[in-house]
Amino acid sequence: MTRILTVAAAQLGPIQRDENRASAVARMIELMRQAKGHGADLVVYPEAALTAFFPHWWIEDEDEIDSYFESAMPGNETAPLFAEAQRLGIGFHLGYCELAFEEGRKRRFNTAILVDKTGAIVGKYRKIHLPGHPEHRPDAPFQNLEKCYFETGNLGWPVWRTMDANLGMMICNDRRWPESYRSMGLQDVELIVLGYNTPKHNPPAPDHDRLGNFHNQLVMQAGAYQNASWVVGVAKAGLEAGVDQIGGSCIIAPTGEVVAQAVTEGDELVVARCDMDLGKSYKNSTFNFAKHREPEMYRLIVERKGAMGPEGG
């Protein structure tokens, strides 16, 4: 019997600095209701979906930094989203900034959770590939301070069995690294969901700007095809707190084909019926890992972090 999971990519337009969580949650609930009307089983929201993307500016006050983080999930302001999901019988993925108290200290992570149709959290992921820089750059048009405000994720890339499928998560910059996909591919992942906040302008390399949308889609299509998995990427898009961000939220099949894509930079829902068995023919042929992979030949990937040229080169 075919396993169909109807997935809705719930792109958000910008959330400005003065917009509160209640307003953001209300927008997400409206998209969730639309998704239910399309028969969706799962709604995917963006990275850091509850507030403006604060790593784009320099903040010195610790209390102000903490104000962008959630110390409980659900909390008072996010509880309505969980309640509506439970009422509708729909699962969701949510990206947010997590304030944790572990190992006797306060820790900050860029986090995503997977919530099933009963409203229960069944999975958590913390972003591993943090982009940008840890120091303030006053001459830059905007900051990219994830390395300042977040710690590197410490949960790896688990895959969860839920909604009759194998689901995994990554966040934003993780999508640019093949290790992210392959770590889950080796766990027979069938659907990878992710959110992103991606500026149109790249200050360290402005010549890349014209390729921003192309690169965004390229890496997700490659990851989907090479691991025979569905990939759903969802943006927070548009002009947010002075930073213009790409849209392009999309649903990509294990074939590498884009089957649904957003056309605006505002709140927008795109939906696709995703056959969780579609990747099997690829996993049993071209990407039969057990038959064709040679892990002993790849040791350099985990033994060396940075690139080094050959001796004498």
From TrEMBL:
Residues 5-278 form the CN hydrolase domain. InterPro entries: Aliph_Amidase/BUP, C-N_Hydrolase, C-N_Hydrolase_sf. Pfam families: CN_hydrolase. Keywords: Hydrolase. It comes from the Bacteria. GO terms for molecular function: hydrolase activity, acting on carbon-nitrogen (but not peptide) bonds, in linear amides. Signal peptide: none annotated. SUPFAM superfamilies: Carbon-nitrogen hydrolase. CDD domains: DCase (cd07569). PANTHER family: NITRILASE C965.09-RELATED. This is N-carbamoyl-D-amino-acid hydrolase. It comes from Bosea vaviloviae.
